[in-house]
Structure formats: structure tokens, C-alpha cells
Fold this protein.
Amino acid sequence: MSTASKGLEGIVAADTQMSFIDGEKGVLEYVGIPIDELARHSTFEETVFLLWNRRLPSRTELESFQREMRSEYDLPAPIEKIIETFPAGAQPMHALRTAVSAMGMFDPDPNSVDPAQYRRKALSILAKAPAIIAAFDARRNGRLVTRADPSLSFAANFLWMLNGKRPTPAMERAFDVCMILHADHGLNASTFTARVIASTLSDVYSAMAGAIGALRGPLHGGANEGVMTMLNEIGSVEKVDAWVEDALRNKKKIMGFGHRVYRAYDPRATYLKTLAEQLSKDTGNERLFEMSRRIETAMLNAVAAKGIYPNVDFYSATTYHSLGLKLDLFTPMFALSRISGWAGHCLEQLAANRLIRPDADYVGPHDVAYTPLAAR
């Protein structure tokens, strides 16, 4: 009997040119470019082009791509009406998944897997996802929906729709960097889900909705919410050392530390830490950043030798809070970005498709006699 690899760990299920990860050395590259380079010098729109085309765009290509994306910002009226029916107490990730799925019902040709059509539909989903979240948040709080502004970048437009006011350049840049950092990360659970659905030649709406469902789980996309909950529980910088010591003694998980892949400092966290520090100062949230930095110091002193370092979720929590995001919007922010990666992987899957259908080792009994209902 073969030995099953629980969680498919160590199993190579696809070839990809999108992202490369070396967990031992703490390396993440998008199409060969180090993530820190992209975070410092690129934009989210340029990064999406890179992932979908496997190269950086020329200035003309980037401007054309930006115009195409911005022309898709607005939600169709039927989707707005559907969002109006969502209960105020619904979770934002459920709202996002449902609205993305509903988009397929208003597409006259939803099932096309023609590369050009699939790409166009994927861009529409990516461009409209911020409007879905912002509209739902407005409705549940009794506010009028702020309309999209096609003159703004992806990052600035979302913050505008969510808060009803223009973000500062520092806020726009911080959110844009978060979008870059979360765009793709190998064959993680949600990306694998998207590729499996795409491999059946199902539609892009199903693939994105399925991936959102996978991301929603607390073992995948929900970790940044856990970091913020932890910071609120600790309460102050002075309480950090005792809290960490107690948590480690009682084998309590420290949210935002450790990663399934990385055994070194998460390369996505490096520049994000710098941005989080500046943004926290700009927005009066220095206390949160100082708590985070103190937790990192305490953890590095205690467990760094075991290869447990901060991951991208650790400082994204402080960043999102400083941007004014509610706690239950943290995971949807992850989804906004990762739609770009999911779509890129689906396009890659379809370019050389083979149905993904792994085996399973049966470990149950054999030749069991059927017992009639009357005898049970």
C-alpha cells in the first residue's frame, strides 16, 4: 500500500511560472522578480499584468491595462440589488463569495474558457470586487453607497468607496503594497482550489467563488484577523512580555508567527513592517505598532532558533487597522489581492489543461455483508 501525503505536502501538482518560493532562505519571486523589489517599486496594477503575462508591461501597455481595469469598477445594477438583500449581520467573505458567484448569472456567455474571454471576465471580477465589499459595508451600516471613481488607482478607489473620502498618498501606497504582497503565493489551498475548478473547464465565476470559500478558513486567510484580536487582548506594550511568556508556556499559538512554507523571515513582511511603522505614526496608531514590534522581539528571543518568524499577516493587521478597516474586512482584503493570482493560475492551467484528479488510499473494510433494514 502506498503512503498518503496528508495535506498533499511535498506533492508537485502543477508547473507554474508565476511565483517561486524558497522557504528555507525566505525567498518569494513573482515571475523571477523578488517580492521586496516589487513592493518597493511596482504598483498592484503592474503586478497583475506581470502575473497574467509573465513579463512587465511597457508604459503604453500599463496605461492601457489601467484604463481597462478602471472601466470595470462599477457594479451592474442587478448585483447592487442582490447586495441590498444581504442581511446586515452577514460576514463580508460570504457576501463577496455570493456576489462574485451571482455575477455569472448576468454574463450572457458565462461558461467561455476562451483565453481572451476568460481574461476579460477575470479582470471584471477583480475590478468589481472592491465595489462589492464597499457596497456591502455601506448597506450594513446604513450609509449611501459611494460610487467608484475611475480616475483613481485600484487601491485609492477602494479606500474612497469604503470611507467616502480620498485616502492620503501614504494610505494609498500602504494598501497598494498590501495588494502586491498578497497577490500570489504558490499552490496554496485557495489557489489549488481555483486550479482544480478550472481544470474541469468550469467557468471563471465558479473558480473565483470556490477560491474565496477556501481562503475564508481560519487556517488560510483568516490569520490576520487573529493578529488584531491578539493585539486587542494584550492591550499595552507593558503587558507584551508576560503575555508572550505565558502563551509559550501554555503552548498557545502566537498569531502572525510561523508559516507552512517559510523557515526564515517571511520576505513579504520586510517592507510591510517599514510601511506599518510609518502609517501607524501618520494615523495615531503608534501603540499598535510598538506592541507588534515588542511581540516580534520577544518571539525572536524565545523561538527564532526554531525557525519561527513573523509572517505577512503579522504587520498587515496593524496596517489594515491604521487604514480604518474593520476587523471582519481583513480577510476580504486578502481576497481582493489574491483574485489576481487565482485568475493567473486558472489561465495558466487552461493553457495546458489536464483534469486534476488525485488518488486516495482506501483504508476501510472489505467484503462487508449487507444487513437488511429490518435486521438492524
